[in-house]
Write a structure and sequence with these properties.
Elements: H1 2-7, E1 15-19, H2 45-56, E2 59-61, E3 76-77, E4 84-85, E5 88-93, E6 100-106, E7 118-123
Antiparallel strand pairs: 1-5, 2-5, 3-4, 6-7
């Protein structure tokens, strides 16, 4: 996955949505600019790797940016402990975070036969028209 971030030109919009099986925690002071103030839970090894990757490529985990109840932040319910965790993320470049209106779990989408809630991100993108050069 690391090489995919390097291959995308820095001028392009980059949005990554995936189940990383990573918990990134709520420590926004340590990861300032990479996660927002509204994360949940504690960090695991995959979470630390994801945070390091995002930090090195100037990316933001949008799920942690918006204040909302934990019900709309968590994406996976552990079968034994019954705790909810945030494991699925929508990640964008930090310069594009202003284009993201909200990222949240779709809690009513339980009929999909999967053990994760779907994550939905609403974005307002403005694509500039291409300027053609006269020959």
């Amino acid at each position: 996955m690391h090489s995919s971030f390097v291959e995308v030109p820095s001028t392009s919009l980059q949005v990554c949505e995936c189940d990383f099986s990573a918990r990134v925690s709520r420590d926004h002071t340590l990861w300032n600019g990479t996660i927002g103030r509204h994360g949940i839970g504690s960090c695991n090894a995959n979470g630390e790797s994801l945070l390091n990757l995002c930090n090195s490529h100037d990316l933001v985990i949008t799920n942690t940016v918006f204040q909302q109840s934990n019900r709309y932040k968590s994406s996976w319910h552990h079968p034994r402990s019954k705790h909810w965790h945030l494991l699925d993320y929508v990640i964008v470049r930090s310069r594009d975070i202003h284009d993201v209106n909200i990222t949240r779990a779709m809690v009513a989408a339980d009929d999909c036969c999967i053990d994760h809630h779907l994550i939905r991100s609403v974005m307002c993108l403005q694509i500039a028209p291409k300027h053609w050069q006269k020959a």
